[in-house]
Write a structure and sequence with these properties.
heterodimer, A: 577 residues, alpha+beta, 7-stranded mixed sheet, 4-stranded antiparallel sheet, 13 helices, B: 172 residues, mainly beta, 1 helix, 10 strands, 45% strand
Chain lengths: 577, 172
């Protein structure tokens, strides 16, 4: 109710310049996993920039709100989603800012399938990852091979969109342009804070709603947008939140950047107020001399030449930063420690019944939990430093007759650690024999226990980070209790990975996994400082949407980095200042 | 230099606030500041933020002494002379016994206005610089035993060692 001001309306939020979005870089955790197994012999990271023109218009009162989704065809013919762009409001010729990172393998034919959707306006406040594609209008699709794009001289390829499952006309569905650039891996990044003064007023009844869009010049002419700021409403002297640009985005300090200031209009027809072209080095000089640059208005109407305007742009902040990657920390000796908690509540079904998620098949077929432990275990074992996992169960009735929300999985009263994935499997099987399923489903005690371990580690060794893996069928009895524990743990070196098995409704898990930007709030009024929960539904993984490795490690590097970066913790081999 | 019974020195960095409102549909325009109180006579104030509007940012470090028996800090967000919202911070959030000295805790709190309605979020970081000896034990861990400091108002401690009676009533 009272949220109307803190929520940014769809289309007004910043894209591509947010510091915490470590995921905008290539996910080196996934890459490292494969590389260690020798699966990427010849490969390079590239980023795809997408733009389209003359898209179908499916909205009656306005224009389409397009979003592109990129899939890669796997060897078995299934499509694997690689990434989504942001939604651009009311545009039939969108240029998306969000880049899609892919690993280009030279020796494999990698077929890309590109879909463009019109996103309904009621979904505009949702993060794009949460959008259900079947609810959106399909605008067209096209396909190409990555090598086709990369081998083009200007590294871009324009494809015709077609739309097979729609009756409406067979005419022009528009075109989609894919551009591939090799990713410059560099630790350098800059934080910029821009301010403008005396902007021209473009709105009749109120003042302009300005935002900045920054594009970098590409080698073969033209500009590629790399980020845009949030919209400052009704203000001719706006200050934007700090922008965070990585070397990957701006390429080099000498590369010219085009900074354009627009007036935001909900109909998508953003009016250019003025622009200025500066390289990063020039922006730095501006900041040091505390000078400003005048915006230039493009030729328009009667005027055929550019005009220097009164409006000025200031650089209030310019900080060069070293951005260490997840692997920099891990390879320098930071330890990841995984902990496992398994759901023993009655909602899983009686273990003797074949319908139960806990059913032990004597023919050796793994049940849902065993499958999850095996598949997830393989990944976490790779990143765990000592391969000893504290393992708990919750929601079961222990042999002494009491219901416990955090009992040791191996049945030992004191020692909760087990050795390796086999250890978890053995402890799980033995627990199924000794523990009877009960309820309710409460995560709180397990999370508190994990937070306790993570907290106590702080006093002896800073270089540890904990990940609690909760395998559950997803029906939480007391969501607020869980939220309270999560909020309390959000300040500790801890992430929580929830793996959902079975087909229950996982809506509550999506609340915990605060991907929609709404921060968790405990009953005492404390608010989570960062997102530490990630939810992975196993059924989606099995349906072939994303691989287990990718799904599990999707947010962990960025959660890890958000903890380390805000405390300015550096990798161990870097001299501490 | 330190007074008797106030062995804590904490360094609080008031980072920013989000979505401050003067009334139901009137966002704070400018001149917001934050007041920290450890008791009615002991407070610190940040400077005015003139640019951030309803999303002010201060990034200001404040040093504060905390009496050994203090269990709550109060934070208040003001706009000009008006109190916009307040929250109380349990000391245990940043001084739990297992946290090492100089651990930087990043904390966020929901602010509520005089009527108890939600009004924005305050982000801050807290570092305990000097801490009392463990025998005085002003800190309770989230799983640890009952709080050994000053007895609680109703003197009750829940069975599992979880402290009850956090004074939040005025907000509900």
């Amino acid at each position: 109710m009272g949220q109307c001001f803190s929520d940014v309306n769809g289309g007004k939020q910043a894209v591509g310049g947010v510091a915490t979005a470590a995921a905008s870089g290539p996910n080196d955790a996934v890459d490292h996993f494969f590389r260690a197994r020798g699966e990427h012999s010849l490969c390079t990271q590239i980023e795809l920039s997408l733009s389209a023109s003359k898209l179908l218009d499916l909205d009656y009162t306005s224009k389409s709100d397009p979003m592109a989704v990129v899939y890669m065809k796997r060897r078995d013919g299934k499509l694997e989603e690689i990434g989504r762009t942001e939604v651009i409001l009311n545009s039939l010729d969108p240029t998306w800012i969000q880049k899609i990172n892919i690993t280009y393998q030279f020796e494999v034919v990698q077929t890309l399938i590109l879909h463009v959707y019109d996103v309904d306006s009621k979904y505009h406040n949702l993060p794009v990852k949460m959008l259900k594609l079947q609810d959106q209008d399909f605008l067209g699709e096209t396909t190409c091979a990555v090598s086709e794009v990369v081998t083009k001289r200007n590294r871009s390829l324009t494809l015709n969109l077609h739309n097979t499952n729609r009756i409406r006309g067979s005419g022009n569905k528009g075109t989609l342009t894919v551009r591939a650039d090799e990713i410059v891996t560099s630790r350098n990044a800059i934080e910029l804070k821009f301010r403008c003064s005396s902007l021209e007023n473009k709105d009749t009844f109120s003042k302009s709603d300005p935002f900045l869009r920054i594009s970098r010049a590409s080698e073969n002419g033209g500009y590629i947008p790399i980020c845009k700021t949030e919209v400052v409403n009704n203000n001719l002297n706006p200050t934007w939140k700090p922008l965070f640009l990585t070397m990957q985005q701006f390429m080099s300090k000498e590369n010219p950047l085009l900074i354009e200031c627009f007036d935001f209009n909900t109909n998508g027809n953003h009016v250019l107020i003025g622009k200025v072209q500066k390289s990063v080095a020039e922006i730095e000089a501006l900041h040091q001399s505390r000078a400003c640059a005048n915006l230039i208005s493009p030729p328009s109407g009667f005027r055929h030449h550019e005009k220097v305007m009164k409006s000025q742009i200031f650089v209030d902040g310019f900080v060069e930063k070293q951005q260490y990657s997840f692997l920099d920390y891990i390879s320098s000796g930071f330890e990841l420690n995984f902990m496992v908690a398994v759901d023993f509540t009655a909602s899983n079904g009686i273990p003797t019944s074949p319908n139960s998620l806990h059913y032990i098949d004597h023919s050796g077929r793994l049940n849902a939990y065993q499958q999850a432990i095996m598949e997830v275990g393989e990944v976490i074992q790779f990143y765990d430093s000592d391969r000893r996992f504290p393992a708990w169960g919750f929601g079961g009735k222990t042999p002494n007759g009491s219901i416990s929300h955090c009992f040791n999985l191996n049945g030992s009263p004191t020692d909760f650690e087990v050795e390796g994935v086999e250890g978890i499997m053995a402890a799980y099987t033995s627990a199924l024999h000794n523990v009877s399923l009960s309820g309710p489903t409460l995560f709180g005690q397990v999370i508190n226990k994990a937070a306790d371990i993570a907290g106590h580690s702080l006093s002896c060794n800073q270089a540890k980070y904990y990940v609690l893996l909760i395998i559950t069928d997803g029906v939480v009895s007391d969501l607020q209790e869980t939220i309270n524990s999560v909020v309390k743990a959000s300040d500790l070196p801890l992430s929580i990975l929830i793996v959902g098995v079975g087909n229950a409704d996982f809506k509550e898990m999506e609340i915990l996994d605060a991907d929609n930007g709404r921060r968790l709030e405990s009953i005492t009024g404390r608010v989570a400082t960062r997102d530490i929960v990630q939810f992975v539904p196993m059924r989606e993984v099995h349906a072939g949407q994303i691989s287990v490795v990718q799904a599990l490690l999707e947010e962990l590097p960025s959660q890890f980095l958000s903890y380390m970066r805000c405390r300015d913790v550096k990798p161990l081999n870097v001299p501490q200042l | 230099m330190e007074r008797k019974g106030s062995p804590y020195v904490i360094e609080i960095t008031v980072i920013s606030a989000e979505g401050l409102r003067l009334s139901r549909n009137q966002p704070v325009k400018k001149n917001s500041c934050v007041v920290l109180r450890s008791d009615p006579f002991n407070s610190r104030t940040t400077g005015m933020d003139s640019e951030g509007g309803s999303y002010p940012a201060w990034n200001e470090k404040l040093l504060m002494e905390l009496p050994a028996n203090a269990r709550f800090l109060t934070v208040e967000a003001h706009s000009g002379s008006r109190l916009v919202g307040a929250a109380s911070i349990p000391v245990s959030d940043f001084a739990a016994s297992f946290l090492p000295v100089n651990y930087l805790s990043f904390l966020s709190y929901r602010l509520r206005d005089a009527h108890g309605a939600k009004n924005g979020i305050l982000n801050l970081s807290v570092k305990v610089i000097g801490r009392p000896s463990p025998t005085i034990g002003c800190a309770a861990s989230c799983s640890g035993g009952p709080w050994p400091g000053v007895p609680l108002a109703d003197g009750k401690v829940a069975g599992h060692g979880i402290v009850t009676g956090i004074p939040v009533s005025y907000r509900w």
